[in-house]
Design a protein that fits this description.
The protein has about 60 residues and is mostly helical. It is about 65% helix and about 0% strand. The chain is built from three helices and no strands. The relative contact order is 0.06. InterPro entries: VapB-like.
């Protein structure tokens, strides 16, 4: 049999390996855009000005 400590070590190693093989956030976004037929235009890659974020967080 396997001790509880060994079982935990095995589970942690497997979890780390799965995480290492997982896609990055950029890859996830690209996959979802392709799946739903969304394409990014050049303008979408340009960051918004700081004022846009300031307006989103202004209290009314």
């Amino acid at each position: 049999g396997v001790s509880i400590t060994d079982a935990i070590v095995i589970a942690m190693k497997e979890a780390i390996e799965r995480r290492r093989d997982a896609e990055s956030p950029l890859q996830t976004a690209a996959r979802l855009r392709e799946k739903h037929g969304v394409s990014l235009r050049k303008a979408a890659k340009k960051p918004l000005p700081r004022e846009a974020f300031d307006k989103m967080w202004e209290s009314e």
